[in-house]
Amino acid sequence: MPDRLVLLGTKGGPAIRPGGPSPTAMLLQASGRNLVIDCGLGVTRGLVEAGMHLRDLDLIVITHLHSDHVLELGPLIHTAWTTGLASPVTVYGPPGTQDLWTGFLASLSYDISTRIADEGRPDLERLVTIVEYGPGMVFEAEGLSVDALRVNHPPVTECFALRARFSGRSVVFSSDTAYFPPLAEFASGADILVHEAMLPEGVESIVSRTGNGARLRAHLIASHTFAIDAGRIAKAAGVKRLVLNHLIPADDPAFTGAHWRAALAPVWSGDLVIGRDGLVIEF
Ligand SMILES: [Zn+2]
Ligand SMILES: [Zn+2]
Questions:
Q1: Of 57, 56, 23, which Cα lies nearest the Cα of 39?
Q2: pLDDT tens digits for 53-104?
Q3: Ligand 2 midpoint to CA 194 (Å)
Q4: Which of 73, 239, 247, 276 is the most exposed place for a label (fewest CB within 10 A)?
Q5: Residue 136: left (phi > 0), alpha (psi -120 to 50), or beta?
């Protein structure tokens, strides 16, 4: 199978709506490994629809512990286990990931112990290794490496952009961040930069539809990046292709690809992909 990146969930934030996209999750298949990046709601279904057998679940990296990036971590691993997973899975996540996993196992203890005793399944807890990481190298193994850069996503301090390297290629994931110029150096020369993005007019539309609009607006502006600034990062980094994801708004029919392209046009004339669930990029 060729190396490829699949966007499984492309909306920013944890809410889901009829016909709309799912929260954040991606699959990078490179050097024969399956690397899942973030586990928002819908990641399990997204992986299956993308053609990955769940028993081949292998590596997971969580960028930060906001629920739109981690809500389905436990359910993904559990479902892979009931689908035949019998080989080790390693989860790399920020501090707190071990507690999340331990709490998930406790919440499902009845089901897990029953299936081990009744169905002869392997011990789920022993299949999974949690590695909590910080800035710098996350892992390097068999032709695939991932490095992390702490980004600016208040009030979350343990939030990391990732750079994956394989077969002479690089893909950088911004994670959630306010406009963060150091990301340009981290992403320098990458083949692909997957950057979160929001539209100013879209933010106002969301704020007007939401009860606590003023506080939501303040959070979005302090913690996320407008599309034009994602374009500035891509240009400064000299990346070959910019992929927008974690879109805000993502499920408002008033905003289309044309709005995103227009927002970026002043700063970015390179290859541009507006993320959507199920989108496949082959290398
Ligand atoms: Zn998010
Ligand atoms: Zn976040």
A1: 23
A2: 999 999 999 999 999 999 999 999 999 999 999 999 999 999 999 999 999 9
A3: 15
A4: 276
A5: left
Residue pLDDT, tens place only, 116-154: 999 999 999 999 999 999 999 999 988 999 999 999 999
Residue type, 40: G
Ligand 2 midpoint to CA 110 (Å): 31
Q: How far is the CA of 29 from the centre of ligand 1 (A)?
A: 22
| Gap from CA of 176 to ligand 2 centroid (Å) | 5
Say what the pLDDT of residue 209 is.
Answer: 79
Q: Does this model's pTM top 0.90?
A: yes
Instruction: Calculate the CA 142 to chain-centre distance.
Output: 22
* First-to-last C-alpha distance (Å) of the chain: 11
Cα 115 to averaged position of ligand 1 atoms, centre (Å): 34
Q: Which ligand is nearest to the CA of 223?
A: 2
Which ligand has its closest atom nearest to the C-alpha of 64? 2
With a cut of 90, say whether residue 277 has pLDDT above it: yes
Tell me the CA–centroid distance for residue 187 and ligand 1, in Å: 20
The ligand placed nearest to the CA atom of residue 219 is 2
What is the CA 138 to chain-centroid distance, rounded? 16
* Sequence-separated (6 or more) residues with CB below 8 Å from residue 211: none
